[in-house]
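TA notes. Do not distribute before section.
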Amino acid sequence: MHAWDVSPKEAVQIQKALMGKLKLEDAFGEIKTVAGIDVGFAKNNTVARAAIAVLDFQTLKVVETAVAHHPVSFPYVPGLLSFREVPAVLEAMLKLNAQPDLLLCDGQGIAHPRRFGIAAHLGLLLDIPAIGVAKSRLTGTHPEVPSTKGSYVPLMDKNEQIGVVLRTRTNTKPLYISPGHRVGIDTAPRLVMRCVTKYRLPETTRRAHNLASGV
């Protein structure tokens, strides 16, 4: 674990130092539980509300949930949002009865300017397989995604693939999927689709989003 009370410049250096420790290939066993993670903010964005929804991977039924509130001290800086959000998520993780087998985070994995979004950050610190499931693009380019559910195209940054753009529902805006830790790029969209029902968001992050929003 590293310090959180740092400057934006120091945070960038932490990201660069940790990025090389990521495992970007499949390194997991049987997945029995999958956790959705989302973070909302309250009190004029001075308090982070981290929510975790743990689901059974086969049935997608909620196994347990956890919510934690943590004061926010780090400024809002694009590309450094995990320094605002992760401390609250780590508090919420401590409230769980059991560690989930897979994390689906609302945010980026390696589809990030320094290849170290929140899914990479959390996955590495917790040593849990993690995938970024983002609603918008932070970096990279891609061709048009076919309109049918389950279709995806590569998300590229120059000549490097940093994720995929996945259509989780026919004729609905796609999601930006990228590995965070211990999951490969080709496996990530398949695992995400296993968690999709009739909504754009997978059940994991949808449930966590509702918790983080106080719904």
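Switch to the second chain here.
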Amino acid sequence: MNKKMLEQLSNYTVLYAEDDEGVRNSVAEMLNLLFKKVYIAKNGEEAYALFLEKSPHIIITDIKMPIINGIELAKKIRQSDENIQIIVISAYTQVDYMLDAIDLSLMKYIVKPITETKLCEALEKFLQLQKNSNTIHLVDSWVYDSSNKTIRNEQTEYELTKKESSLLELLLSKKSVLTYEEIEMELWPDETMSLNALRLLMKNFRKKLPEGYLKNIQSIGYKL
């Protein structure tokens, strides 16, 4: 696994479900070296609760588990999230399981034993899908990655604060001017937005954007 891939995976969280303790510990040890955070479950019920609580970026699950198996877990998850990437791992190669996997739009079906090569291939596909679905072209070589909350160009990558990423997403969703009132309502929902706080936010935010990309419409608000 190359350095770039390791750096990219370190921005994501993963939920891993496996009932076999030996396999679970072995794979979890590998995942902890790759991901920012690894959530571990020993059955489908625990996995579903962690999915609802932690909102991981990717799910890796065994099929044969007690209480809720991996296929049923994927079905429950798909009821509320059609986009999260799911990798199923199993000793089974029966047609019925494969057809279920196809119906659930699973990202990958890995047949045991789990090897580093198989896992790397699956995670490489995950990163490619994330890149295609989460990157927004701003201008020239400038790109916003909504999953990592970063803006990058050919030379530099900027990490956005929570307010900065929320502001950018608001601006991208607006075809017209984003008003001061809308900014206050969305970014300062429980307090009054001071003029100094807004000025400081915009000053730091502009440093992470292409020159001239953010325009102030006097007495109204901002637009891209």
